[in-house]
What we know:
Blueprint: E1 2-5, H1 13-21, H2 32-44, E2 49-54, E3 57-67, H3 80-93, E4 99-107, H4 116-130, E5 135-140, H5 153-157, H6 169-176, E6 180-193, H7 195-202, E7 210-212, E8 221-224, E9 229-241
Parallel strand pairs: 4-5
Antiparallel strand pairs: 1-2, 2-3, 3-4, 5-9, 6-9, 7-8, 8-9
Helix pairs in contact: 2-3
Amino acid sequence: MEIVTRADRPELHEAAAVVFRERWPEFVFHDDVPKRYMGRVEEYFARYDVMVLDGGSVVAGGWGVPMAWDGSADDLPSGYDDALIRAVDGREAGIEPTSLSFMAVAVGASHDRRGMAGVVLEELVRRAWSDGLTHVVAPLRPTWKHRYPMVSMAEYAGWSRPDGLSIDPWIRTHQRMGAWVLCPALRSMVIEGTVAEWESWADMVFPVTREYVVPGALNLVLIDRERDRGVYVEENLWVQHR
């Protein structure tokens, strides 16, 4: 295996994008904040955008952003979107980062159960420590939360197995690396669109105004047919690594 940054191997961008897209529902890619910030994230923070290669092929990847955080729960960003904004705005304002926030990790479906996600996370942690950052956090999107969209993230995060670890595979991955749960990220992502756009993203029909269970969504999606608007506010879960 080989670990490289996407800046090192720009010809693999498309292959990396395929790995990421197969892991998330379509609506996740229609959040307006990343559309405005990702270009600068790629320019400023290329060191924290890594890929794992096996035989020259991309099998996993992940990225994070360095940001200022004082270590308290009150100073955490509201979630994924806010972490992006804080990292980019902080860089442009000359604010010294203190922490790395993992933003996303993906493993190709054909390489599941090989520990590839842990490889990516450990490499990002190593880079953070070597750069003098003192905290590593992540607004997790738990793997199984979409099965319980009417349950709050706070309650879901407390569900555990007899061994004391979370019932959720992605939370467990972080726990096994020594991470612990901080608090829910109550407004991690906000995705808005017309009713037609949401019907396309979800492959569903929304005939009346109400909240809907949508495949892949961690929380309910509010569809307002009179205003021709769908709004999804996703809760994630902040964890901190040792």
